[in-house]
Amino acid sequence: MKNVERVFIVAGGELSDSDFRSYRKNRDTLIAADGGAQACISLGYRPDLVVGDFDTTGATYMETLQSQQIPFRLLPVEKAHTDTHMAIEEALRFHPREIYILGALGGARFDHMIANIGLLEWIATRKVDAFLLHQTNRIRLLIGPTTVQIPKETYHYLSILPVSKEVEGVQTDGFLYPLHQETLYRGETRGVSNEWARETASITFTNGICLVIESNDQTN
Questions:
Q1: β-bridge mates for residue 143, sequence order
Q2: DSSP 8-state assignment for residue 153
Q3: Are residues 92 and 51 in contact, defined by beta-carbon separation less than 8 angstroms?
Q4: Bridge partners of 210?
Q5: Domains (ranges, CATH) in the chain?
Q6: Largest Cα–Cα distance in the chain?
Q7: Thiamin pyrophosphokinase thiamin-binding domain: which residues (predicted)?
Q8: What is the dihedral of CA 120, 131, 16, 59, to 10 degrees?
Q9: What is the pLDDT of residues 150-200, one digit of tens each?
Q10: What is the model's pTM?
Q11: Fewest CB within 10 A of the end CB: N or C in the chain?
Q12: Distance CA 21, CA 73 (A)
């Protein structure tokens, strides 16, 4: 299987055409997880692969995929992992540098939403950068020690939320409210709603795990 720079995965949560903004730039590899296939096709995007047990779309949807010559991998209904998790495993077979997951947030199932956020850590341990994209938000997970450069792009706010009990040695540069070798604690809100002071800002920390969430109040 050939290596690719980026893989986009579409899950079965809330989705809009604006979520495909990054995908439209390069037409990267596109994998849909179960109900995400219907959303892709209805918005005019053809998945390169569909993964799922088809409990959401119904077994007859496989006939639709076959008629459109879209490859699919049928999973058992009773399994240890979610369809989205299995779609990520398929994505990793391409050895991508980045994975973008759409449709992973919102919808009726909060358990799936929280599990999808947790999958960012599972991907990070495999040395691949991963992002959840959802209308007004882009979410990534970082494991220290690390330094990242984050351009402003289309987002207004940036929040750093600890996943581990503590995130130590946090140093930010280029934000309106800088942090200087501080420790952020899980359950507190010290890192919420910062703003860019320059076109590109940076985050450094020495130890811990955190979510970095770029967001807007409304869709651009």
A1: 209
A2: T
A3: no
A4: 142, 162
A5: 6-135 (3.40.50.10240), 141-215 (3.40.50.10240)
A6: 58
A7: 144-211
A8: -40
A9: 999 889 999 999 999 999 999 999 999 999 999 999 999 999 999 999 999
A10: 0.91
A11: N
A12: 26
